[in-house]
């Protein structure tokens, strides 16, 4: 009996397992199919990084909005019609500067402000990112293509409570004067996680 | 608990598989897992702390070998069995095979009675304690000192909330640590900020 | 290194599969693995510290899912490739498939220049340090104080010996710790004794 | 690509892997087959728990030998013709008493005095024993069938250096006066690891 014997030969596949749960939920009148359809609609239409991009673009062009956003993120994104689930009681927005790079992670699971910046990418939830970003921040950012000069200081935010975080990137010099709509197009999910600069 | 899920600072992992076009989901079943555990939370079958702790309770080899959504699925299945929504036997009959579940839950704890309020600028230390149930202080902060730089609104105390114990809301303090103090001589220079519940902290 | 191999005190594991008639080997191939890594040690291809560190360098998911002898096998294969006995390509050609090897080795370190001698009865503390290479102080002793109860003969310093660095022999101290101090409020009452190399210790 | 993608579909089996190493060793004149045959002979004939049982029986019946055994285990077992590999520089023997239970483990790998007490059993090398015995000693011993009264104190020896350990069990009262040969028959590997009393 090898160590790995806990994984049985006749284990149901992940598809069989979720099929079973879906069927049992349906049998109990818990409207599983409806919830799945609604979820698929929500992630395609509502929980999209374009939300966060709009927030960033507005903060770049409206100094008063930016002040409100940094003071109370949840209330400020509400001005743009964006909402968060009830258990995300607070949205904290951290602003990058020419000498500061903020980056977010969750070492214990993989929490994110998904209704604002979109659901997290696969790598964000991987054990590699969770284990290494807090301890080897500069090294990992470099591996991800963000080779920061020593003059840029790094702050890592390990978001282990239900407060959610997003990063406000530095506006690129050449985009000064662009419209909000044009600016929103250049804002990426990676930049709002803090693993890329624009 | 000092489980394998407590990943921060653990060594031996390779490069992050990053691409600018990275996806959230890779298989259709993953979306169904996400949808149905969200549904279960909305229906009040379990809360997010119970959900997270049920992932942590996975057999450690299973935790590490499973994908993110298999972990979600295992938590959903485990909690539905534990809460009496269906039995393990019914689940395995429907699934036509064995379904690995998380290991049994142990005791939790209530908010710490001796907890104190802190203010921005206070120097604090994460208590040197080992909580066998659910706990949201990463292991790498244990016994380490930092500075309170912000205070965020109160949440239910997860150590209680994950165990069906009455959980009073308490603030989380945004505590700033130096990476070099967390991992002397073996970390990149940076500040690491952690949202720490009041019960986990003492004055440094 | 703070790897998944550093098991002492980690929670989440289930019952020990014990039986009075427990076997060492379950499959014939396991004996061949044991025989051939022992042969490689006798032939001077690698030493036991290199062997142990190559196991620790296994990709963490592979480490946890592999059986004891698959870990031995992975170390043997990795070190033979790293030492130039055969190439990975030749190995995989012979094996008719891919062979998972351990991740690359990082830098080691020499004996600590400032190490001191201790005597029986001395109160000592395991230095609060994080060594990224091979190290034989279990993580649960880091920063903890105990009492020297015995001194055993000198061995090559493993942090150097596993990395091809000149390793001076140094004593190991039998240090007695209280389990309740190692894991406050969450350990069975006992003394835990650990053989600690001189370089890992400072006066408490 | 799931997290477990590092385990490839076309991975060679463990048998194929060790076949390959054996064949390449042979091709280089490294006498792999001979080493395997010799190893199989050694573990069946030489590295057997009967060695340690003889040591224990002698210590029970010869107080002077016991003194030498506790002072220098390696030299004392040499008197019985028993040897240890060169890198096992020292054998430490810890004596149990009516109020003390010693137990050995290795949390970092699974080192043992295999030439004296035999190769370690499967469970000794498992992650369960390695992770739990140092922290939950009394609980784990109970699970293994050794339910100690509170009056018996526990010492766990985490043998992380190359010094090797064995436990000298308490001689059962009813065996007083037995011959060394008879006594040796009741000494088990578990008792010399310290997870059983006789």
Note down, in words, how this protein is organized:
The complex is a heterotetramer, with 2 copies of chain A (198 residues) and 2 copies of chain B (204 residues). With 198 residues, chain A is of the alpha/beta class. Chain A folds into 2 domains: 13-45, no CATH class; 48-193, Nitrile Hydratase, Chain A. Helices cover 44% and strands 11% of the residues of chain A. Chain A contains 11 helices and 4 strands, in the order αααααββααααββαα. Chain A has helices at 14-27, 32-45, 49-61, 63-71, 73-79, 114-117, 122-125, 127-132, 137-143, 180-184, 189-193, and strands spanning 91-95, 100-105, 153-158, 164-168. Chain A has a two-stranded parallel ribbon with strand order 1-4. A two-stranded parallel ribbon of chain A has the order 2-3. Chain B is an alpha+beta fold. Chain B folds into 2 domains: 1-105, Nitrile hydratase, beta subunit (Cyclin A, domain 1, Orthogonal Bundle), CATH 1.10.472; 123-203, Roll (SH3 type barrels). Chain B is 30% helix and 18% strand. Chain B is built from 7 helices and 5 strands. Chain B has a 5-stranded antiparallel beta sheet with strand order 4-3-2-1-5. In chain B, helix 1 runs parallel beside helix 4 and helix 2 (48-56) crosses helix 4. The interface between A and B is large, with 79 and 83 residues. Strand 4 (191-197) of chain C pairs parallel with strand 3 (153-158) of chain D.
Question: Any chance you could write out the topology, listing elements then pairs?
Answer:
The complex is a heterotetramer, with two copies of chain A (198 residues) and two copies of chain B (204 residues).
Chain A: H1 14-27, H2 32-45, H3 49-61, H4 63-71, H5 73-79, E1 91-95, E2 100-105, H6 114-117, H7 122-125, H8 127-132, H9 137-143, E3 153-158, E4 164-168, H10 180-184, H11 189-193
Parallel strand pairs in A: 1-4, 2-3
Chain B: H1 28-42, H2 48-56, H3 60-65, H4 68-82, H5 88-95, E1 123-126, E2 145-156, H6 158-161, E3 169-178, H7 179-182, E4 191-197, E5 201-203
Antiparallel strand pairs in B: 1-2, 1-5, 2-3, 3-4
